[in-house]
Design brief:
This protein is α+β, with helices and mostly antiparallel strands. It is built from 26 helices and 28 strands. The C terminus is likely disordered. InterPro entries: ATPase_P-typ_cyto_dom_N, ATPase_P-typ_P_site, ATPase_P-typ_TM_dom_sf, ATPase_P-typ_transduc_dom_A_sf, ATPase_P-type_domA, HAD-like_sf, HAD_sf, HMA_dom.
């Protein structure tokens, strides 16, 4: 540990906290070991690790001087620990991915060359002289040994780290098998024996590195949402001084009660209340709605929202660390940690691997000595046991299916972003939809069918003087005439003179209508009766068919929307979704999903906005449209391309099929071991045959995974009146 960690500790009263990046943690067992080990330390209130980002958050009572002690404690468990710096962590992920790819490429190169030499030895048989065979063996050794040392480093380093901590992991028997196979092969070559097993060692390394590369790449993609939310945070703010001046200060130095100036186009730095001025805010971060929100003196504003109108002055009600944007970032981070706790089937099955394999290999070695076998025979059989029980088939059971399923989904416009997303998606029982931009197109459309064309021309001409989305929906109907004396009443509407007529456009009260409950845009020309212009966000053309197919698959559905109750209920009625909740904020969506989960439902959240990110992160599985915000895509397991929901039923079908293939693969891997292990123990299998058998088991698992390519689109009946595709194979 070369870095003093005390300077990275954050103090909050009597409590201290620290974020560390952990090296060597690869599975749910590692995560549990780290969290439980630290929680046993006196004064530790919280120890929570995100396995995807390797980030560990510790909270304790006391001073910063305990930080180095926690790091030493982690090192004693067999893990490395250093300060968590987001940019450094991201760079470390990139470097690790490059190292694994290079190691895999080198192993593949060496394996191909050694196999060519081995085939020459096998095909030569009795016709090959001892000198020629010895030369080929030495050439194999010259290729295999340095390549095994280079490409096997990920396993050797992990195994050595575990052994130094007086513990074991799956890399210990793997490393032992590689070293014994290489060592025995070198011994055989030195003594002029017929068989060597350099090819077996390299094949073992290459196949295991395939799984390691896939796992590393999938993990590296899961930590983006929190970093992108951090990018939305304002780093500096304009603070008013006591003498009336303005100073630029870091956002972290803003205190409660500070007055801040926010110019047009700037983001609100912290949560506050407007003290002077009125404006319009892009509050999609809070509400998920594209329409600008009118605000004036006394209205609350939230960090991350954008001032799209006149300059305003706000009073800080929260510090940066407690602001709305920080809350969303922490909710996303917590949701990703919850997802990381999902223990994959492969991890569960592999827990018993190390002690069983070590014991079995040792018993094989001792048993052969006891029955009179030579040390060479005992070692050969023990190595065969280590190799033949190598968890290649077990390790490929999940990744092989994932690769084929992900490719199948990609061809249909569905992108998978999380390693275990398919497994979680296969268990989904309930789907929660956001409304605006998800079930609807997110583009406002006015219904002008009942408005007199002459009146519509006047109203639309006035509307051209506003950039409000509702007004913009009327722009195509405007006449080419001039508007005079245009007056905009902030937050209420427009008033102007057109061809001698006084035209008003805006809220019901502004135009003089008593019907304040009717949703939509109101207009009045002179003293005529006020005109209601229904404005709505149109349904996506594929939404009804998607909902129908999902229901046919036995799923229950609901809608959570930040929009008005009448609008949300109307969308639910059109789609046949009865469970509709309106006017919800991000925390409300989170609470609703938690309630559904408490009832025993496995929940899929489908959304597109920044305000959906916490719910997306906390749901059992999540999906976002490619047209949605970048943060919502990063917080999701599934991204639906082509700005359409049509791929969602297909994704559920593929996920369910993938789960069946994974279970079949585990069955094949277990059956293989039940058959092959006794043969190795009783000496019927050489290390080379063991490597071939191990490869064959991996091949069988892979071929079974390739059956995923036959999975077609959902073959259920289309929604009446729709024709969105038939089953394909």
């Amino acid at each position: 540990m070369s870095v003093a960690l005390a300077s990275f500790v954050k103090k909050d009263g009597q409590q201290a906290s620290l974020d560390l990046v952990i090296g060597g943690a690869r599975c749910g067992g590692c995560l549990a070991k780290i969290e439980n080990g630290l929680r046993e330390q006196p004064g530790v209130n919280q120890a929570r690790m995100n396995l995807s980002t390797s980030r560990l958050h510790i909270v304790w009572d006391g001073g910063a001087d305990r930080a180095d002690g926690f790091a030493r404690n982690l090192e004693s468990m067999g893990f490395t620990a250093g300060p968590y710096i987001p940019d450094d962590a991201e760079q470390s992920d990139v470097q690790q991915s490059r190292k694994l790819l290079l190691a895999m490429a080198v192993a593949a190169f060496g394996l191909m060359n050694v196999m060519i030499l081995s085939i020459a030895v096998w095909s030569g048989g009795a016709d090959m002289s001892e000198e020629t065979r010895a030369l080929l063996h030495w050439l194999s050794a010259a290729i295999a040994l340095p390549i095994a040392a280079f490409s096997g480093r990920p396993f050797f380093a992990s195994a050595w780290q575990a052994l130094r901590a007086r513990t074991t992991n799956m890399d210990v028997p793997i490393s032992l098998a590689i070293l014994l196979a290489c060592g025995l092969s070198l011994w055989e070559t030195w003594h002029g024996e017929v068989h060597t097993y350099f090819d077996a060692a390299l094949m073992l390394i290459f196949l295991l590195l395939i799984g390691r590369v896939l796992d590393n790449r999938l993990r590296a993609r899961t930590g983006l949402a929190a970093r992108q939310l951090a990018a939305l945070q304002v780093h500096n703010a304009q603070r008013l001084t006591s003498d009336g001046g303005v100073e630029t200060v870091p956002t972290t130095e803003i205190m409660l009660g500070d007055r801040l100036m926010v110019a047009s186009g700037e983001r609100i730095p912290v949560d506050g209340i407007i003290m002077t001025g009125s404006s319009r805010l892009d509050a999609a971060l809070v509400t998920g709605e594209t329409a600008l929100q009118s605000v004036e003196i006394g209205d609350p504003v939230y960090s991350g929202t954008i001032n799209r109108g006149a300059p305003i002055t706000i009073e800080a009600l929260k510090i940066s660390a407690d602001s709305f944007l920080a809350d969303i970032a922490s909710m996303v981070e917590a949701g990703q940690q919850t997802q990381a706790r999902y223990v994959r089937l492969a991890d569960r099955a592999a827990r018993a691997y190390v002690p069983i394999v070590h014991s079995l290999a040792l018993l094989t070695f001792v048993g052969w000595l006891m029955v009179g076998g030579t040390p060479r025979t005992a070692i050969l059989n023990a190595i065969a046991v280590l190799i033949i029980t190598c968890p290649c088939a077990l390790g490929l059971a999940v990744p092989a299916v994932q690769v084929v399923a992900v490719g199948r989904l990609f061809a249909k416009g569905v992108l998978i972003r999380s390693g275990d997303a398919l497994e979680r998606l296969s268990t989904i029982r309930h789907i929660v939809f956001d409304k605006t931009g998800t079930l609807t197109e997110g583009r406002v459309k006015a219904d002008v069918s009942r408005i007199d064309p002459g009146d519509l021309g006047l109203i639309a001409t006035l509307a051209r003087h506003s950039t409000h989305p509702m007004s913009e929906s009327l722009h195509p109907f405007a006449d080419a005439v001039e508007v005079t004396h245009v007056e905009e009443v902030e937050g209420s509407g427009l008033r102007g003179q057109i061809l001698g007529h006084t035209v008003c456009l805006g809220q019901a009260a502004f135009v003089g209508s008593d019907n304040l409950d009717a949703p939509g845009l109101w207009a009045r020309i002179d003293n005529q009766t006020a005109i209601l212009i229904p404005v709505r966000d149109t349904l996506r053309p594929e939404a009804a068919d998607t909902v129908f197919k999902l229901k046919e698959m036995g799923l229950t559905l609901s809608i959570l929307s930040g929009d008005a109750r009448e609008t949300a209920n109307q969308v639910g009625a059109e789609l046949g979704i009865n469970d509709v909740t309106a006017r919800v904020k991000p925390a409300d969506k989170l609470a609703r999903i938690s309630a559904l989960q408490a009832e025993g439902n496995s929940v899929l959240m489908v959304g597109d906005g920044i305000n959906d990110a916490p719910a997306l992160a906390h749901a059992d599985a999540s999906a976002a449209l490619a047209s949605g915000t970048e943060i919502s895509r990063s917080a999701s397991d599934i991204v639906l391309q082509g700005d359409t929901l049509a791929g969602l039923p297909f994704a559920v079908q593929v996920a369910r099929a993938a789960r069946r293939r994974v279970q079949e693969n585990f069955g094949l891997a277990i059956g293989y071991n039940m058959l092959a292990v006794p043969l190795a123990v009783f000496g019927y299998v050489t290390p080379l045959i063991a490597a071939v058998a191990m490869s064959a088991s991996s091949l069988i698992v892979t071929l079974n995974a390739l059956r995923m390519r036959q999975v077609g689109q959902y073959a259920g009946p289309s929604h009446p009146g729709q024709n969105y595709g038939k089953a394909q194979r």
